[in-house]
Design goal:
heterotrimer; A mainly alpha (about 290); B alpha/beta (about 240); C mainly alpha (about 350); B: about 240 residues; Rossmann fold; 6-stranded mixed beta sheet; 4-stranded antiparallel beta sheet; globular; C: about 350 residues; about 0% strand
Chain lengths: ~290, ~240, ~350
């Protein structure tokens, strides 16, 4: 029984991590058809923001849950204004320009923080389940993921912004015709995606060794989760994260963590091949 | 002129998209060398039918046979290789290549290099664009692009040509030239032409098939069709009894 | 529309350039500097391979390094096991080509393209990277070759002159070989691109739909393009393993794949000279930045890439060409007016 609970916790935590990592990119890709390859660096910047804040004496939770997302959201806004905005519709050019930005961010961060591994420790200690000790932080990750999902769904479905964002995504000309400024919407949407990445980076900081180059590991996972998920932001991300996260955890448990990652990657390849429009290109079409 | 074997034959052809029956129970046939026009109001199923013939859509019911070969399960390029030349509604060409290069690529598929050169030059003459041979297609006017696409289609020496709105967006003079071109091509090749432009239809048509609400309403000589009251009603939205678009 | 030499003229120029490089450079520069330049030449071959599949074939792979890495690793493993390097050289071409055939079939016959192709190729190269990194430990070996995990395979045998197993290629010989291969690849690709096959491949990139409607099996053309690119990348990989007498998982890294893309973008997608220039320029820039050690090189590289994409979307060489063409056209007009 203990085993089932601990294994289940691992799987849920793994899925939650993936959801948090991918959600920002999913929003930006799903709503704006933009592939932001600097997404990993937004995560990295979120982690460094959280670390800097905590090391300056700010409360852990405030640093991770508020300062990191807000800071990176602001950075995202600037990026959208300066770069992304000029490249709408040019999907490949956007990928290339954002990769340039990612290199830029890595370079700047290395200049400021150096190349050594840093991190912060989680204030949440171990929790006992049955006769096993598990990291309490895993519950925190799952909690943050759940709350974030709920908030994003509410934002997209219940708020005026969400409606406008979805409308603009589906038909920008029409949205403009009814008085919506698509440029504003894109700017805010991109900033939201960046903020979510910052949040994820902050949340991951206590359990990952943070270096300026950490973004690469994140961006690949996020990218395949978003592509695998398909056009629907929430449902796509959730289903893809569940499948990939589960495969990763189960395979890691049965073999090694490396093979677990490989299994996940190969599953992604297979999935994209079988469903080239992603999961929500075939199932749950038109969902949020 | 009439051959025993039909060039194109559809049996009870039908397709639905979700709840919408776009094409239903169509038994259509075309003889070798025949020119047929397809007309009908918006939403009548002409373009859907066209796409069923080109393999873009797969039928829900029924079959399509071209030159004796059922096209079920065939990829687009395989259908093209049966001897079918296709011109879609929006001109689809190699914009950054010259007119001659476009024609050459079409001819090269079924001919060796030197022969392809000859055929490309021949096609240039037929479409009367020899002076624009080295011009990039993107730089041409709309009417000229339509002619280039006709040239590309004929350079493949097809047995059957499917044209979707060849006269779209053309001036009066351009329309006449296009009609002349089509009549010229028809001397060696069967054609199915989907069109909206009634003036244009009158210039080229012999037999006309009228589509309405996914079915064939009537099929007869052009003057009979165009003077038929049912056809007029259908275009004015009376016949159906339903909501006009 | 551009000032293009015809292929034979280009072949002459490339040949002359190669001969000049082979004789002059070792005479002017010392062995260390020749070694430095060799890597530029080798990476330029890699750049050409992506220039072909992307610029001509329209296939943007985000994991192109996988073929480079397969070339390097398969040469190393084969050379160590066979004890003979000529066949190992062939293996370095065959292995990436075979893999490209399988992966290409998987993708193109599944009608995968654009961003989805990018996702799959990125993921595949990542798999190789992770697997290569995890093979530390004596039990991980293929035949006599230890895989070495993140340390890679050391003591990779140098290429020898075919038929003379004692005659290992020295630095200058290896440099000459690299230059010759670069020139041959460049000229070969030029001829390929202007052949009927090349023109069809270009047409598939231009308008896939129209190519299909003409009866061309676009899947097959993409597959062949992909395989050719992989073979060339494999050659580059083999030379790379020779250059340092070692290979490690960094050949599979995402950053390696992206670097190749950057060279092609900066140089000019759709050209062959462009990516060579882009590669030389950026490699030189990276080396120089690392030596002067003031501004972080990633900042500069990243900045350049972003700015090039925003301001010079065509890349350096086409922009310069167009500029030259405009200048030449204006000059001719002035001449005509003067007359």
């Amino acid at each position: 029984m203990t085993f089932v609970l601990t294994a289940g916790l691992e799987v849920l935590a793994g899925i939650s991590s993936l959801v948090l990592i991918a959600l920002g990119l999913a929003i930006v890709f799903g709503m704006m058809r933009v592939i932001n390859l600097a997404h990993g660096e937004f995560l990295m910047l979120g982690a460094y923001t959280a670390i800097t804040a905590v090391n300056s004496g700010v409360n852990f939770y405030i640093a991770i849950l508020f300062i990191a997302p807000l800071t990176v959201g602001l950075i995202g806004l600037i990026v959208e204004r300066l770069v992304i905005r000029h490249l709408y519709g040019r999907i490949v050019d956007t990928m290339l320009a954002t990769w340039g930005l990612s290199l830029l961010f890595v370079g700047l961060t290395t200049t400021v923080f150096g190349n050594t591994t840093t991190g912060i420790s989680s204030p949440i200690g171990a929790v006992t389940i049955g006769n096993a000790n598990v990291s309490g932080y895993k519950f925190f990750i799952i909690g943050v993921a759940v709350v974030t999902i709920v908030l994003v769904i509410l934002l997209l479905r219940k708020t005026e912004f969400g409606l406008i964002a979805r409308a603009t995504m589906q038909n920008p000309t029409m949205a403009a015709a009814v008085g919506v400024d698509p440029k504003r919407t894109y700017a805010v949407t991109f900033a939201l995606g960046a903020a979510l990445a910052g949040l994820a980076g902050g949340v991951m900081a206590p359990i990952t060794g943070i270096v300026p180059g950490i973004g690469t590991t994140f961006v690949a996972k996020a990218f395949i989760t978003v592509i695998g998920g398909g056009a629907s932001v929430m449902v796509g991300t959730l289903t893809a994260s569940t499948i990939f996260g589960t495969v990763n955890q189960v395979a890691s448990f049965l073999t090694t963590p490396v093979l677990g990652e490989v299994a996940m990657l190969l599953t992604a390849v297979l999935l994209v091949r079988l469903m080239p429009q992603g999961i929500t290109g075939r199932f749950f079409r038109g969902s949020i | 002129m009439m051959s025993a074997a039909k060039l194109v034959e559809t049996k009870d052809l039908g397709i639905h998209f979700g709840g919408l029956q776009a094409v239903q129970g169509v038994n259509f046939s075309l003889n070798q060398g025949e020119l047929r026009c397809l007309i009908g109001p918006n939403g009548a199923g002409k373009t859907t039918f066209f796409r069923l013939l080109t393999g873009v859509h797969k039928p829900s019911v029924g079959s399509v046979t071209i030159n004796g070969t059922p096209i079920k399960g065939l990829q687009t390029h395989q259908i093209a290789n049966l001897g079918v030349g296709i011109k879609t509604q929006i001109p689809s060409l190699f914009d950054n290549l010259t007119v001659r290069e476009n024609l050459w690529l079409s001819a090269r598929k079924r001919n060796a290099h030197a022969e392809a050169d000859r055929i490309a030059d021949e096609a240039l003459e037929t479409i009367k664009l020899a002076h624009a041979a080295k011009t990039e297609v993107a730089k041409l006017a709309h009417g000229q692009r339509q002619w280039v696409e006709l040239g590309v289609v004929i350079a493949g020496h097809p047995k059957l040509i499917l044209l979707d709105e060849p006269a779209a967006g053309m001036t009066g003079h351009e329309r006449e030239r296009t009609a002349e071109l089509i009549r010229d091509i028809n001397r060696t090749c069967a054609m199915i032409v989907v069109e909206h432009d009634m003036e244009f239809i009158k210039m080229i048509a012999k037999t006309v098939t009228v589509f309405n609400r996914g079915e064939v309403l009537m099929e007869d000589a052009v003057d009979k069709v165009l003077s038929d009251q049912r056809v007029k009603d259908v275009y004015l939205g009376k016949q159906t009894g339903g909501v006009t678009l | 529309m551009t000032l293009e030499l015809n292929n034979w003229a280009a072949a002459l120029v490339a040949g002359a350039g190669a001969l000049l490089a082979i004789f002059l450079i070792p005479a002017i520069f010392n062995e260390y500097e020749v070694l430095q330049m060799m890597i530029y030449v080798i990476l330029a071959i890699l750049a050409l391979s992506l220039a072909f599949i992307w610029g001509i074939g329209g296939i943007l792979s985000f994991g192109h390094a996988v073929f480079f890495g397969l070339g390097a690793y398969s040469y190393a493993i084969a050379a160590i096991n066979f004890g003979e390097t000529t066949s190992a050289f062939l293996v370095a071409i065959i292995v990436p080509s075979l893999f490209a055939a399988v992966l290409g079939y998987f993708m193109f016959y599944g009608r995968i393209s654009d961003v989805y192709l990018g996702a799959i190729t990125l993921t595949v190269s990542l798999v190789f990277f992770k697997v290569a990194n995890s093979t530390s430990g004596p039990s991980y070996r293929i035949g006599k070759a230890p895989l070495g995990g993140f340390n890679g395979i050391p003591s990779v045998p140098r290429l020898t002159v075919p038929g003379f197993p004692e005659w290992e290629l020295g630095t200058i010989e290896l440099f000459s070989l690299s230059v010759v291969l670069l020139a041959l690849t460049y000229v070969g690709l030029r001829f390929l691109i202007s052949s009927d096959f090349g023109r069809i491949v270009l047409s598939v990139k231009e308008n896939e739909r129209r190519s299909e409607l003409l009866g061309y099996d676009v899947r097959r053309y993409k597959l062949l393009t992909f395989i050719i690119g992989a073979a060339i990348a494999g050659i580059a990989g083999c030379l790379y393993a020779n250059w340092g007498n070692y290979t490690d998982p960094s050949v599979f890294a995402l950053s390696q794949s992206v670097q190749v893309i950057i060279w092609v973008v900066v140089g000019g997608v759709g050209t062959l000279i462009g990516p060579i220039v882009g590669c030389f320029l950026l490699q030189w820039l990276t080396t120089w930045l690392t030596t002067i050690d003031t501004i972080n090189k990633d900042v500069i590289l990243g900045g350049i890439l972003t700015i090039v994409v925003l301001l010079l979307p065509q890349g350096l060489v086409p922009t310069i060409r167009n500029l030259a063409w405009t200048v030449a056209a204006r000059a001719t007009r002035h001449e005509e007016k003067a007359v």
